[in-house]
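Per reviewer request, we include the raw input and output of the structure prediction for the construct analysed in the revised manuscript.
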Amino acid sequence: MVIGTIFGHRRGHVWFCVQHDRLSTRPALLLELSILTHQLVKEMRFGLVRITLECDDRSSDLATCPLRSVPVWALHCNGRKLGFAARRKAGDKVRLMLKAMESTTVGAGALPAGFGFGSGSSDSEGPVMYMRSNYEHVVGSADSESFHLINPDQFPGQELSVFLLRSRNS
């Protein structure tokens, strides 16, 4: 089990952060997705969201590196290609935001303006929306990992999964 946080400014890109410990400000995985936050919120209204991030191994470097080290991914949301995702390093603003959220185990809400992050971000983009929860982390092979949101009340509801897949080209 890991802590997963999906966050972003309302009109900005979605970020997906995985932490092994909620007190850590150094994420195990940090991805910036090309889908906009308000688009993802729209998708979530239907209760089922599948985000698939795919890379291929045409580059010999990508064929042998750990899956989480892949720098760029093709992004699909509920079967539709929606652009790309990029692995990022946590900058000062992301670490500050994670520090502010360390007491939050599970929940959704908004942090006040002032947590600008990523390229072109500014405080004028308003609050940062977030959804934080426990995720089941499943490693299928060296070429597949997935993160499945664990509903805290054990009742059916929001289903959200993020899949990392590496295609093998022969």
